[in-house]
């Protein structure tokens, strides 16, 4: 691992991507049923900015394809830490939002 110097915006970007990717893993694992459940927890439990609509809503505003592109770029640095969630990959491939994602039974 090469040490680097990161500006505040890059740190915020990486933390946000990590949170979105982990939330998508929570969906993949069936811990949460849908993106709205995660939004409620992030707003009321973790203090995520209400005006952003919750973590997953915020991610949908960025766009799943853009999130996947950023995660794949970071995976070049560390493929274990930055492996994109299958939910993000699936949403990008189907051109659907995280809010529209439903667990396959």
Question: What is the structure about, briefly put?
Answer:
By secondary structure, the chain is an all-alpha fold.
Essential attributes:
single chain; 105 residues; mainly alpha; 5 helices
CA-atom Rg in angstroms:
14 Å
Uncertain segments are none
Order of helices and strands: HHHHH
Strand residue content? under 5%
The share of residues in helices is 55-70%
> Rough shape?
globular
Q: Average pLDDT value?
A: 93
How many strands in all?
0
Structural class: mainly alpha
Number of helices: 5
Q: Mind explaining what this structure looks like?
A:
There is one protein chain. The protein is globular. It has five helices and no strands. With 105 residues, it is mainly α.
Task: Break the fold down into its secondary structure elements and pairings.
Layout: H1 8-28, H2 35-44, H3 55-62, H4 64-75, H5 86-94
Helix pairs in contact: 4-5
């Amino acid at each position: 691992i090469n040490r680097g110097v990161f500006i505040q915006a890059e740190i915020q970007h990486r933390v946000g991507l990590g949170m979105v990717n982990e939330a998508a893993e929570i969906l993949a694992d069936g811990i949460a049923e849908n993106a709205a459940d995660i939004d409620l927890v992030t707003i009321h439990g973790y203090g995520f900015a209400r005006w952003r609509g919750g973590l997953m809503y915020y991610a949908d505003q960025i766009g799943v394809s853009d999130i996947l592109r950023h995660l794949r770029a970071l995976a070049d640095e560390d493929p274990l830490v930055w492996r994109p969630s299958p939910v993000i990959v699936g949403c990008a491939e189907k051109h659907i939002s995280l809010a529209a994602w439903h667990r396959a039974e």
